[in-house]
TrEMBL record:
This is Amidohydrolase family protein. The keyword Metal-binding applies. The keyword Amino-acid biosynthesis does not apply. Its cofactor is Zn(2+). Residues 63-441 form the Amidohydrolase-related domain. InterPro entries: Amidohydro-rel, Metal-dep_hydrolase_composite, Metal_Hydrolase, Metallo-dep_hydrolases. It comes from Acetobacter musti. Keywords: Hydrolase, Metal-binding, Zinc. It holds the Pfam family Amidohydro_1.
Length: 450
């Protein structure tokens, strides 16, 4: 790849609630890194536009950073929109574990993952933090699909060994078996042909505390320290799950994970709706992060994560689809649901309650904050140089078509107007082109590629 220039209107969110919209040109180097940005009206902008490799965006298009899905279960893709009326513990036992057990069949795994990855890219998800299953070969198939389609993938082989919760046909035989498998998987992902730039990274993935023995949690904490590999898990997701941990350890999920050495820089905790202020302080101290999954939380958590507190305190946070606890593969959809959930938390929802007592005032988030969570928030949580259209960042970006229903008023509030349109309305239909690591990716004809 030689140096290239992209010019047109671009929008990004450098901080929560702060958005920037301008006509600019980006110079991208051979490695896909943005090395220069020049705004219209500067001599440098005019010079970049004269470059032989310039790609000028249509006047109605808008370039935005790629979306980050901070929590998704790849094997649950065939099950989106299924059995969401069940509580988490029954949904896991009756639907999810039996489905995930099928990934012993590598052909099944390849077919699902080769369908999922381009579908996510077409939705604008340029980076995904995945849970897979306990199967090493099938999990490597997901890593290969990410490389094949060019998605930035963080892939975690699921570790689970607790016979009291996990079926005999779907669990590791012992803590040692799960730790050895995780170690082999880390090596295998790092050595995958085509992964020389590290576009796909392994992740240490204890499913959640209830599914893991103490020895497994301790062993994975040690493995994380030894290898420096990122960690992901579920934490404080529902009353049932939170109570399991309290009964077993007499403390919160976050405290227990910290004791086992699993709360580290860029550890991502999915859900975390039942964390308290002390938990969040601990998360910040360890430089860990939370994946907010608003759709899934509406079904399984029975509570709304107060993202307002996270943003105000500086607790790292991004958005997750939690497929298939969440039914939608779209991070745009989860961004709008994050805004809606926070508004309902603020106002309260029971009309039989007096207005002054109905809600928890002051917990709303705005559209610009949701946009930040979907882009830069997720990238910061993972520690990847993406999520902004600025020098030093890798070019992970989407071209959105903003015509007719997506048009927005110009003027002083132009950026705020554009962000609200995007969070409310963007989706598969508006994503016209996708770049990851500076390259336009092939999304199998599903992303309306040129
Ligand atoms: N907790 C443990 N496993 C899962 C899962 O697959 N989905 C959700 N939402 N929560 C979990
Ligand atoms: Fe999950």
């Amino acid at each position: 790849m030689s140096r290239a220039v992209i010019a047109g209107r671009m929008l990004d969110a450098p901080a929560p609630g702060k958005t920037d919209l301008e006509e600019a040109a980006l110079l991208i180097d051979q490695s896909g890194t943005i090395i220069e940005r020049a705004g219209r009206g500067t001599p440098q902008f005019d010079m970049l536009l004269r470059s032989p490799d310039v790609r000028k965006l249509d006047a109605r298009s808008l370039l935005i950073p790629g979306l980050v899905d901070l929590h998704i279960h790849a094997p649950q893709w065939p099950q989106i929109g299924t059995a969401l009326d069940l509580p988490l513990e029954r949904w896991l036992g009756e639907y999810t574990f039996p489905l995930e057990a099928r990934y012993e069949d590598i052909a099944f795994a390849e077919a699902v993952y080769d369908d999922l990855v381009p579908a996510l890219l077409a939705q604008g998800t340029t980076t995904a933090l995945y849970f897979t299953t306990i199967h090493e070969d099938a999990s490597l198939a997901l890593a290969r699909s990410c490389l094949k389609y060019g998605q930035r993938g963080f892939v975690g082989l699921v570790a689970m060994d607790n016979a009291a919760l996990c079926p005999e046909t779907y669990r590791h035989a012992s803590p040692e078996a799960a730790i050895d498998a995780t170690r082999r998987f880390i090596e295998a992902v790092r050595k995958l042909p085509g992964n020389e730039t590290g576009l796909v990274q392994p992740v240490i993935t204890p499913r959640f505390i209830p599914a893991c023995s103490d020895a497994l949690l301790r062993g994975l904490g040690e493995l994380a320290r030894e290898t420096g590999v990122r960690v992901q898990t579920h934490a404080s997701e529902s009353d049932w799950e939170h109570e399991c941990v309290r009964t077993r350890f007499g403390c919160t999920d976050v405290e227990a994970l910290d004791t086992f050495g699993l709360l580290r820089q860029h550890t991502v905790l999915a859900h975390a709706g039942f964390t308290n202020a002390d938990d969040r302080e601990r998360i910040r101290k360890r430089q860990s992060a939370i994946a907010h999954c608003p759709i899934s939380n509406a079904f399984f958590a029975g509570a709304v994560l107060p993202v307002r507190h996270l943003i105000d305190e500086g607790t790292a946070c991004g958005l997750g689809t939690d497929i298939s606890g969440g039914y939608s593969p779209s991070i745009f959809e989860n961004a709008r649901q994050a805004v809606i959930a926070a508004r309902m938390l603020t106002s309260g929802v029971n009309p039989d309650t007096a207005p002054g007592k109905r809600g928890s005032p002051g917990l709303e988030i705005d559209f610009a904050e949701a946009f930040w969570l979907a882009t830069r928030g997720g990238a910061e949580a993972l520690g990847v140089p993406t999520g902004l259209l600025r020098p030093g960042m890798k070019l992970d970006a989407l071209e959105l078509r903003m015509d007719i229903g997506m048009s927005f008023p110009e003027g002083p509030d132009c950026a705020a107007n554009a962000v609200q349109k995007i969070v409310c309305h963007a989706g598969l239909h508006s994503v016209t082109r996708v770049w990851v690591d500076g390259k336009i990716v092939d999304v199998h004809g599903r992303g309306k590629q040129p």
